[in-house]
Amino acid sequence: MTKVWFSFFFALSSMVWGTTAALAKERLDLIVLETLPVPIVAESRTEFEKELVRIMPDYEINVTSYNAEGSEVRAKEILAELALKPAPDLIVSIATLATRALNASEEFIDTPKLFMAVSAPVEEGIVSAIGAVSERNMTGESHVLDAKVKLDMLDGVLRASNPMSPFTIGLVHSTYPSSSNLVNQLLALNNDYKNINLVAVSTPYIEGDDGLVEMTDNIIGSLQQKANELDGYWLSSGPLAEAKGLVEKVKNASGLLPLFAESIATVKEGALIGVVSEPASIGKSAARKAKLILEKKSARGIPVNKMDKYTVAVNVSTAIKLQLPIPSNYLRLSKKHVYQ
User: Which residue, 115, 133, 155, 311, shows the most beta carbons closer than 10 Å to its own?
Assistant: First the structure.
């Protein structure tokens, strides 16, 4: 009887062990380093994690997130602390300052790296050109359209109104790297458009929540002073684009409305037109690239590209106020993103 029970127990144990072994998944450890706690960063990360789990069901995905609170120095400190621990399978940086710190790090040269929500990877020195590969085991995607495409779209709206003179547009930005890079690209094309006259309106980048409040106040003051010179403004991507209530505050202080924005939320608040990659698209696209990196166990040889999915949004109420007819093809492109 004892032998029978022993044999039964042994067989049952073997079955349980075999089932457990079959269900065991290979563990992948990921580090996510965020630049600052703003919606585009948080929402992109959430979508990235969800999509990666969905497309890699045979793996246990373990993600540990860190936030640099808008400070490149803090991002470097976090990386120095992480260098004392076992290297993860992949490090993901979100937004410019975290990516800059990660790209410069000598401790993680051999660790695969992926960035997202970085507008100007060429200007940041990650690659020599879009479509090129990094020499530092890093890849990713720029989430913004070329400056010329955006200017072409805005010019299409302005041209439809047959203006007698160019629209003078304030390029609202901080000295945050991605904002400055985008504005410089736009200014370089200024003379190519007879209906557009671009003027830089900037404020120094200041870290943290208090810094965002101070930057917002500075921009409102600058636009108030220039209100008689401007027909509207362009809200570039970066921390200021995430400032709550900026559009309404500027309108109350100066009467000015944004003519172009790089966030859907700003179009909802009153921007005439916007073209942007939404956080869900950024995160999902990055997850697909992460899967490729994790399968190769390297980011080398994977080109840095621009995203291929963008959302167009228009605000018809603003168009009516400014007496600017929205071309029908823009309305078709906007689909569910026509606001009033």
Answer: 115
pLDDT at 225: 96
Q: Count up the domains in the chain and report the number.
A: 2
Structural domain harbouring 178: 147-276+311-339
Q: Does residue 221 have a pLDDT over 90?
A: yes
Contacts 24+ apart (CB under 8 A), 105-109: 105/76, 105/79, 107/79, 107/80, 107/83, 108/79, 108/83, 109/136, 109/137
How far from 86 is each of 110, 113, 293, CA to CA, in Å?
12, 15, 19
Q: Identify the band that residue 238 occupies on the pLDDT scale cut at 50, 70 and 90.
A: confident
Three-class SS of 231-251: CEEEECCCHHHHCCCHHHHHH
Q: Which segments of 160-197 does DSSP mark as H helices, in order? A: 177-188
Place of tokens 């660790």: 111
Distance CA 321, CA 340 (A): 11
Distance between CA atoms of residues 31 and 42, nearest Å: 14
